[in-house]
């Protein structure tokens, strides 16, 4: 049902962004993939998704830490019916040791890029008379953990921005919502398992259950397919009046 719609997904050459892009393409949307690299494999990924789902797909390099590049991404795409603000990074350290440049990078990539991309996309959505802004926040947009000051601040900021965007578009067929995932087994998270096994002298299963999924009552990871299908749902007519809110996919984390 998304044939003829163009979806821009920031930070979509891996993990959740790629999973969301794939499900949107399965529903018929044309894709603009993005990250800050410009490798052959980035463009090959777009070609692969296009062939797999019979849609058009392009990869556009843009560094989401740079306001001008965020806006240029949307301008270069030329159309944007669905904007998924997904790019994000993490750094873990106590506040007094937290490197200022890491703080700035996390706020820029995880929060400000959503503002700049939304600002550039809304005129295109208004011209088309329909739009969906989907922000990938986190359980950390609703709750906190120690040592993740920049990430938690940015993700709470994304939830706030989601509400303001929704209110500014409330009288138009444009919605804005945030998806708040718990732990997702992306390549990034997978890569942390061996080190954590060594650090705690634990088996893979123990690391997953006792360390990673400690706060996730389901004791199961969220999958990128589930998050992609949640994004597809938010694009559907059933979700037309869902706006300015958060959808948690966290195995019960925020119910604790
Ligand atoms: P990931 O590292 O696999 O993906 C992050 C994506 O952002 C990659 O495509 C990366 O290339 C891109 N990116 C990083 N810096 C960028 C920059 N400067 N410019 C453009 N793109 C950039 O991680 P992920 O787990 O898929 O995370 C995606 C989003 O989901 C993030 O916003 C993250 O905070 C959020 N999230 C992840 C989890 C989880 O458990 N993995 C949970 C909740 C929320």
Automatic annotation (TrEMBL):
Pfam families reported for this sequence: adh_short_C2
Signal peptide positions on this chain: none
GO biological process per UniProt: monocarboxylic acid metabolic process
Gene3D superfamilies: NAD(P)-binding Rossmann-like Domain
Keywords of this entry: Oxidoreductase
EC number of this enzyme: 1.1.1.30
Cited InterPro entries: 3-OHbutyrate_DH, NAD(P)-bd_dom_sf, Sc_DH/Rdtase_CS, SDR, SDR_fam
GO terms for MF: 3-hydroxybutyrate dehydrogenase activity
Family: Belongs to the short-chain dehydrogenases/reductases (SDR) family.
Descriptive protein name: 3-hydroxybutyrate dehydrogenase
Species assigned in the record: Paracoccus siganidrum
């Amino acid at each position: 049902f998304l044939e003829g719609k163009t979806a821009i997904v920031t930070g979509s050459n891996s993990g959740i962004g790629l999973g969301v892009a794939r499900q949107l393409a399965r529903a018929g949307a044309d894709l603009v993939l993005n990250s800050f690299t410009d490798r052959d494999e980035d463009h090959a990924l777009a070609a692969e998704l296009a062939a797999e789902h019979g849609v058009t797909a392009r990869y556009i390099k843009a560094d989401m830490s740079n306001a001008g590049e965020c806006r240029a991404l949307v301008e270069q795409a030329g159309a944007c019916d669905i904007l998924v603000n997904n790019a994000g990074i993490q750094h873990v350290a106590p506040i007094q040791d937290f490197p200022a440049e890491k703080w700035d990078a996390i706020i820029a990539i995880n929060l400000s890029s959503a503002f700049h991309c939304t600002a550039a996309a809304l005129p295109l959505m208004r011209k088309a008379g329909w739009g969906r802004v989907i922000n990938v926040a986190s359980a950390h947009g609703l709750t906190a953990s120690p040592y993740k000051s920049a990430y938690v601040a940015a993700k709470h900021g994304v939830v706030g921005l989601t509400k303001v965007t929704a209110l500014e578009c409330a009288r138009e067929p444009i919605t804005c919502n945030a998806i708040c995932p718990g732990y997702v087994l992306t390549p990034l998270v997978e890569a942390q398992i061996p080190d954590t096994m060594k650090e705690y002298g634990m088996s893979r299963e123990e690391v997953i259950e006792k360390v990673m999924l400690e706060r996730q009552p389901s004791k199961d990871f969220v999958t990128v397919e589930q998050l992609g299908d949640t994004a597809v749902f938010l694009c559907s007519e059933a979700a037309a009046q869902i706006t300015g809110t958060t959808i948690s996919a966290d195995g019960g984390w925020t119910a604790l």
